[in-house]
Q: What sequence folds into this?
């Protein structure tokens, strides 16, 4: 989480699996909105008949065809995540039963660690400087957190589905909920335009549909939150952002057919339901092996009028980057003619409740995550990896592309670090910092001052790699990843979690000023895959990450490939400045060693810390079952609250 002084007030295989019916940067923009002009790029349909004709003409073969049977869907029990075991053992009983229907001043406090200033990202923990809002399963707990002597649970909101994340905006709480239902289908594999081969459902782990809800609660009375508005849309939750008063939801829904007709998208709000008209569905004349509806919904958190939405007939969305004015959605597509992957990019312009199709483009390769993308001074920058280690004759290569407002490539830097893949990227103004890895960690400094001519300024080769890069200031970068030990071949064995402090003052000669290694092989941290698990505050010289620590006995486990035993889980609290990185202490919620035996993947135990934040001079650490309060100065325990 980044410091903020406030007033109190989803590789191509994913698509293949989805189609197979297992449905399932910080930019230094000073918070200013930079508006790219709208560019006519997409068309709309005049009718569903035209949409169906389009799909039949543009669908490449081979492809999957999904037919929904004329059988009522079965809503899954509240909080139930679809699994093969559930559908094998519980579902038969459910099918026999009846389906279930579906400004005062305050203290300083930290906020969610986000990529773009002014663009909030949904998370499982939020604070308004006095209360904490904590997601656990299908519940949201509201906890009085400050002052600490008054700490207590004041209320709990229970929902039927799985809570994907929340926002808090003054006295309105937005909750994103996803519910699942059994959907009877017949999948086919199209060998050509006229021949379709029925597929055996036993090949699929389960057949499931989903629906995404945005529930807005009035929490002016924290002890009695009440539901103001519910908005629902077909499909699975993909991602969301909050800008000012508006929440933007993006949902994915594969194209379904029923009785030889397309199953349309429906939007519900309050007591109203609307079937999306064909002229709200945009397409780009891009043939593909599969299609999905990507729905973007804009919801005013303080206005209960009808939400605005647009639907895009694309592939399955894979990554999303959002600036103050644009949503960029990417999706990988296989070019069968040369057996390579490319990434399609769509720019959707947003401004309050206005959603406009703007531009489309494509680049070779695939992106790792949202931090591989950035918008700056009217240009879109994106870093990709082409190929896979050991799977292609020439090996993977890494590229960086600069695109204009039309998403046409105007500059490129290709063939970086051959035989390696991108592990992390961070764009900061006219610089890009890139980490690739296979055996060692090349840390690249790339100049983007001239969009037409990106160039490498310098690089640093060290052991280990960074999965996440975080700006300290314009001349220093924090990297969080893994230490490594070189193997006998062209690879390395990853070891403990590594925190690096890079000095890039001399862009041609970046250096690793400090590093700290936690544990041995088997040590993990959610920060490696989820940037929102990081708490960083430059002014407070504070860096906090949750870590699951594994340690080896060097006498009995001397080999670099051997995993250590799990010995600790908790928050590591560091002091950091431009030249120093030191451990101040650790905080844990685990009370006995037997709790560590529950580890089967991070996080796995209800007392494993997964988030941290501060209010005033108090550090709060959060697990599913506990909130602990410690002095930010001494780390001495002040209070703790058990969560229901």
A:
């Amino acid at each position: 989480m980044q410091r903020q002084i406030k007033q109190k007030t989803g590789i191509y295989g994913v698509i293949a699996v989805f189609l197979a019916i297992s449905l399932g940067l910080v930019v230094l923009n000073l918070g200013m909105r930079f508006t790219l002009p709208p560019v006519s790029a997409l068309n709309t349909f005049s009718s569903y008949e035209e949409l169906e004709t389009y799909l039949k003409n543009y669908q490449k073969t081979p492809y999957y065809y999904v037919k929904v049977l004329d059988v009522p869907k079965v809503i899954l029990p509240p909080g139930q995540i679809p699994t093969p075991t559930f559908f094998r053992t519980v579902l038969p009983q459910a099918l026999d039963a009846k389906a279930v229907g579906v400004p005062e001043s305050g203290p300083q406090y930290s906020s969610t660690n986000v990529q773009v200033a002014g663009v909030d990202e949904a998370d499982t923990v939020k604070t308004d400087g006095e209360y904490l809002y904590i997601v656990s399963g299908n519940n949201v707990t509201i906890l009085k957190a400050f002052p600490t002597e008054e700490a207590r649970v004041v209320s709990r909101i229970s929902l039927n589905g799985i809570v994907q994340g929340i926002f808090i905006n003054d006295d309105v709480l937005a909750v994103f909920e996803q519910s699942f239902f059994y959907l009877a289908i017949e999948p086919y594999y199209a060998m050509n335009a006229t021949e379709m081969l029925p597929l055996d459902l036993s090949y699929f782990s389960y057949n499931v549909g989903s629906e995404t809800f945005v529930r807005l609660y009035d929490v002016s009375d924290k002890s009695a939150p009440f539901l103001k508005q519910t908005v629902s849309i077909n499909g699975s939750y993909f991602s969301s952002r909050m800008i000012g008063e508006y929440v933007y939801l993006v949902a994915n829904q594969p194209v379904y057919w029923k009785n030889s007709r397309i199953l349309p998208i429906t939007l519900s709000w309050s007591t109203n339901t609307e079937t999306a008209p064909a002229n709200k569905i945009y397409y780009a004349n891009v043939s593909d092996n599969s299609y999905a509806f990507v729905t973007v919904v804009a919801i005013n958190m303080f206005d209960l009028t009808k939400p605005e939405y647009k639907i895009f007939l694309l592939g399955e969305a894979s990554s999303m980057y959002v600036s103050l004015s644009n949503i960029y959605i990417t999706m990988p597509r296989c070019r069968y003619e040369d057996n390579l992957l490319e990434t399609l990019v769509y720019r959707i312009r947003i401004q309050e409740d206005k959603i406009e199709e703007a531009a489309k483009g494509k680049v070779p390769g695939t992106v790792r995550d949202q931090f591989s993308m950035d918008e700056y001074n009217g240009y879109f920058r994106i870093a990709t990896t082409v190929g896979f280690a050991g799977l292609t004759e020439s090996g993977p290569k890494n590229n960086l592309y600069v695109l204009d407002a039309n998403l046409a490539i105007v500059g490129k830097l290709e063939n970086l670090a051959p035989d390696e893949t991108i592990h992390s990227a961070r764009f900061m103004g006219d610089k890009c910092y890139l980490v690739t890895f296979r055996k060692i960690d090349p840390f690249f400094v790339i100049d983007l001052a001239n969009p037409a001519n990106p160039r490498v300024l310098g690089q640093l080769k060290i052991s280990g790699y960074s999965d996440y890069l975080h700006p300290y200031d314009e001349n220093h970068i924090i990297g969080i990843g893994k230490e490594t030990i070189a193997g006998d071949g062209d690879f390395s064995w990853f070891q403990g979690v590594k925190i690096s402090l890079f000095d890039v003052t001399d862009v041609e000669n970046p250096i690793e000023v400090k590093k700290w290694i936690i544990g041995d092989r088997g040590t993990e941290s959610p920060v490696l895959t989820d940037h929102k698990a990081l708490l960083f505050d430059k002014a407070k010289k504070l860096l906090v990450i949750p870590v699951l620590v594994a340690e080896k006995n060097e006498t009995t486990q001397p080999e670099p490939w051997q995993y250590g035993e799990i010995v600790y889980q908790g928050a590591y609290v560091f002091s950091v400045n431009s030249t120093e990185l030191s451990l101040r202490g650790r905080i844990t919620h685990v009370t006995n060693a037997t709790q560590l035996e529950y580890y089967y993947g991070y996080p796995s135990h209800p007392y494993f810390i997964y988030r941290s934040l501060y209010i005033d001079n108090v550090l709060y650490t959060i697990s599913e079952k506990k909130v602990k309060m410690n002095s930010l100065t001494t780390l001495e325990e002040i209070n703790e609250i058990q969560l229901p």
